Amino acid sequence: MLRLDKFLCDCTELTRSLAKKVIHKGRVSVNGIVIKDAGHAVKDRDIVCLDGNSLQLRGPTYIMLHKPEGFTCSTQEETHPSALDLLDVDKPDSLHFAGRLDVDTTGLILITDDGQWSHRITSPKHRCDKRYRVELADPIDIKLISVFADGIQLRGEELATLPAKLELIPDETLPQGQTRQAYLTLQEGRYHQVKRMFGALGNKVVALHRGRIGDLTLDPELAPGEWRYLNDDEIKSLG
Fold first, then answer.
1. 196-232 tens-digit pLDDT
2. Which residues are the active-site residues?
3. CATH numbers and ranges of domains, the chain
């Protein structure tokens, strides 16, 4: 059950104070009866109307965004715009990021208002894979595959990182067997983790792109800055 004023806010663009004013003016009915009590409890099968028009609660929101460089996954950062600014949706303030990317990192971002769903993606306990394409300043030694698999001790951290999968990407511009590019799959999301892992091994990340979370791959039809809603199968694959 929801309070009537909360129900109106969730169904419309009204703020809580405006919803209360609308209710007190007698513009809202529940099951055909005008209700002027903002605290009235709305049950699942109640029919709520505003000015005679039936209202329905929207379901949870699940969005895939191709984050471009220069946008943050925050609403507090003032230097750069938030990736939420790229969305054309109702009530963007109710949404949050299911895992963040740095301002200079591109790729797959998931956005939702379902806290339990996002927790299953971001919590290390659920071991949800996040796959990145990494470009580095210096060639990568093939021996690092086993180093990442064993976990890396980061400065200022008590525990080493969880085992990570490093896959080298062949580079025809370099001598045979050398490459500056790789795929890295993690099951956690510590602060600047990918950059810090390579930094701990004496290399520098110059470009970073996330292409997959769990079984969900970034839609190739989405250009940087574009987004779409997830379908039911995609939502369930991460839930």
1. 999 999 999 999 999 999 999 999 999 999 999 999 9
2. 102
3. 2-54 (3.10.290.10), 62-232 (3.30.2350.10)
